[in-house]
Design brief:
CATH class of the largest domain: Alpha Beta
Strand order of the largest sheet: 1-2-3
Largest sheet: 3 strands, antiparallel
Structural class: alpha+beta
Number of strands: 6
Strand content: 15-25%
Order of helices and strands: HHHEEHHHHEEEHHHHEH
Number of domains: 3
Shape: elongated
C-alpha cells in the first residue's frame, strides 16, 4: 500500500513521533494506522526500558490549582538534561501530568502512571511518557506528586524558575503574604513550621552535641548550660519557619510577620528538582565516541 503524506501526518499527530519513524511504522504495518500505533507503542516500551537505567536528575516542578483555589497539586517530572527540561513538548507533558494528578484520586505514582493523561482519552500517563522518551531520546520519570486541599485557609505557591516549587497553607493574611512566605520557604528551605514539630530525640541529640563541644572548651558547667541554651535557640531559629529571619526584611522573623498580620501557617511543602538523586559523572567525549563506533 502506498504511504501518503496525509497518513504520515495523521500518525504524527496521534503519536507525537518523528516523520521518519511514522513513515517506517506505516510501511511495516502496510498502511494500517492503528497497527502502526500498536507497533510503535511496543517499540516505545522496549526503548523506554533500555533507557530506564539512565539517571534522570534534571526536570521540572509544576504546580496546578483548582478553579476555586482550594485544591492544588505539585509534581516533579525528571529528564536527564536541562536542555530537555526546556523543551516545549516536555513542558507540556509535565503540565498535563500535574492536571491529571489534580483531577485524580490516586495516591501513588505507580497508580498515576496508569491514569489517562487527558480526560476522555485512552493514552495513559505512562504511554505518553514512553512515547516522549522515544521522541526525545532521554529517560524520563514522573518522580513524585502531592495534593493539597484546604477548607478554612488559603493555598499559596511560588515557583523559582522550574527547579524549585513551594505550596503553603495559611490561615489569614492576603495573597501577597502567602506568596512572600512561599518565596521565603523556597529560599531558606526550613525543616518544619515550628519547634513543636521537631522530634524530641533530634533536639536532644543536638543538645548533647553542643554540650560535648562546650565541655571540651573547659568552661564551668553553669556557663556550659547557658552556651548550650544559646546554641539550641540559634539552631531552632535556623530550621523552623516561624523562627527564621524573613528574607525580605532582616529586622523581623517570620513568626512576628504572621503575628502582626493575624495569620497562621498550617503547613508547607517544598520540592527541588533532583534532590536526593545521585547524578552520574558523564564524559561527553566518551559518549560521542561510543555512538560513532556504533
Amino acid at each position: 500500500m502506498a504511504i501518503t503524506a496525509s497518513m504520515v501526518k495523521e500518525l504524527r499527530e496521534r503519536t507525537g513521533s518523528g516523520m521518519m519513524e511514522c513513515k517506517k511504522a506505516l510501511v511495516e504495518a502496510d498502511g494500517n494506522i492503528d497497527v502502526a500505533i500498536e507497533q510503535m507503542r511496543k517499540s516505545g516500551q522496549a526503548k523506554a526500558a533500555k533507557k530506564a537505567g539512565r539517571t534522570a536528575a534534571d526536570g521540572i516542578i509544576a504546580i496546578t490549582f483548582s478553579d476555586d483555589g482550594k485544591k492544588a497539586v505539585m509534581v516533579e517530572v525528571n529528564c536527564e538534561t536541562d536542555f530537555v527540561a526546556k523543551d516545549d513538548t516536555f513542558i507540556s507533558f509535565t503540565d498535563a501530568v500535574a492536571e491529571c494528578a489534580l483531577n485524580s484520586t490516586v495516591s501513588a505514582v505507580e497508580e498515576l502512571l496508569e491514569e489517562p493523561l487527558h480526560s476522555g482519552e485512552e493514552t495513559t500517563v505512562n504511554t505518553a511518557r514512553e512515547a516522549l522518551i522515544v521522541k526525545i531520546g532521554e529517560n524520563m520519570n514522573v518522580r513524585r506528586f502531592q495534593r493539597f486541599e484546604t477548607e478554612n485557609g488559603q493555598l499559596g505557591s511560588y515557583r523559582h524558575g522550574v527547579r524549585i516549587g513551594v505550596v503553603v497553607e495559611i490561615e489569614g493574611g492576603d495573597a501577597g503574604l502567602h506568596k512572600d512566605i512561599a518565596m521565603h520557604v523556597a529560599a531558606t528551605n526550613p525543616t518544619c513550621v515550628s519547634e513543636e514539630q521537631i522530634p524530641a530525640d533530634l533536639l536532644e541529640k543536638e543538645r548533647d552535641i553542643y554540650t560535648a563541644q562546650a565541655l571540651e572548651s573547659g568552661k564551668p558547667e553553669n556557663i556550659v548550660e547557658k552556651i548550650v541554651d544559646g546554641r539550641v535557640r540559634k539552631y531552632l531559629s535556623e530550621i523552623t519557619l516561624v523562627g527564621q529571619v524573613f528574607v525580605k526584611d532582616p529586622n523581623v522573623t517570620v513568626g512576628k510577620l504572621f503575628s502582626d498580620a493575624g495569620a497562621k501557617v498550617i503547613g508547607f511543602t517544598r520540592y527541588e528538582v533532583g534532590e536526593g538523586i545521585e547524578k552520574e559523572q558523564e564524559n561527553f567525549a566518551e559518549e560521542v565516541m561510543s555512538q560513532i563506533k556504533g
